[in-house]
Specification:
The chain is of the alpha/beta class. It has one domain: Rossmann fold (3-Layer(aba) Sandwich), CATH 3.40.50. It is built from five helices and 13 strands. The strands form two sheets. Strands 1, 2, 5, 6, 7, 8, 9, 10, 11, 12 and 13 form an eleven-stranded mixed sheet that branches. The chain binds hypoxanthine.
């Protein structure tokens, strides 16, 4: 079963989603961001979860990533395409770029980031050398190309804590570290998916230049406008990828 995790700007799959079951938010780790919606999207069976909850009320540092991922796993999900709005750092990431990052550097702190921290759980160190599923990334890339959507097929996702945007110096450091984009919700989501053995890939939409790249402040209005414009393309890629996955 495929799941789509919607990020900022993607709160539902629209009228073409036919709801079959709404799963409870309760998990052993607390409540998920929203009810998990199981149904058919253009006839394709999948589940959808808006990461920030209904009405975008849950900020990145307050998302219960453990509950969200546990609930998806419990619903039988084996593959996740996660949609994330990001700021562009490198020259190949101007606003409205679609990208499939292949690496992560995590700068967040204070988030519950593992299932292996209970008193009775054995110490477990998952391999996370390549944090995203190569197979799933290849499917999304091919789907994008078929839709005539160009996708940047690499990149390092710098995960900041938020909810504030970064300083120019923080972005300069991230750039020196090798980050090509910056977001707030990539981690620990990707790591928890790996702990649960769920294939996971991130489809990122660049909605602004990151702090200090341009000589001006970042405008929320521009971000929202880019989000709205870009999500139509994201939806087209998601649908084509979902069709490939179930065929
Ligand atoms: N920084 C962090 N997260 C983001 C940004 C940004 O500039 N844009 C969208 N999500």
């Amino acid at each position: 079963m495929l799941a789509i995790i919607g990020g900022s700007g993607l709160y539902s799959l629209g009228e073409d989603f036919e709801l079959q079951e709404q799963l409870s938010r309760e998990t052993p780790y607390g409540d998920t961001s929203a009810d998990i919606l199981q149904g058919r999207w253009h006839g394709i069976e999948l589940v959808f979860l808006p990461r920030h909850g209904p009405g975008h009320k849950v900020p990145p540092h307050r998302i219960n990533y453990r509950a969200n991922l546990w609930a998806l796993g419990h619903a039988g999900v084996t593959r996740i395409i996660a949609v994330n709005a990001v700021g562009g750092i490198s020259a190949d990431m101007p606003p409205l770029t679609l990208a499939l990052p292949d690496q992560i550097i995590d700068y967040s702190s204070g988030r519950e980031q593992t299932y292996f921290d209970g008193d009775d759980a054995p110490v477990t160190h998952i391999d996370f050398s390549w944090p995203y599923s190569a197979k799933l990334r290849a499917i999304i890339l091919e789907a994008g190309l078929q839709q005539g959507q160009s996708l940047v097929d690499s990149g390092t996702y710098g995960n900041s804590n938020g909810p504030r945007l970064e300083t120019a110096a923080e972005i300069a450091r991230m750039r020196r570290d090798g980050c090509t984009m910056v977001g707030m919700t990539g981690m620990p989501e990707a790591a928890l998916a790996r702990e649960l053995d769920i294939e996971y890939a991130c489809l990122a939409l660049v909605v602004n230049w990151a702090a200090g790249i341009e000589n001006r402040t970042i405008s929320m209005q521009d971000i929202i406008a880019n989000m709205e414009q870009g999500m139509l393309r994201i939806t087209a890629v998601l649908l084509a990828a979902a069709r490939k996955i179930v065929q």
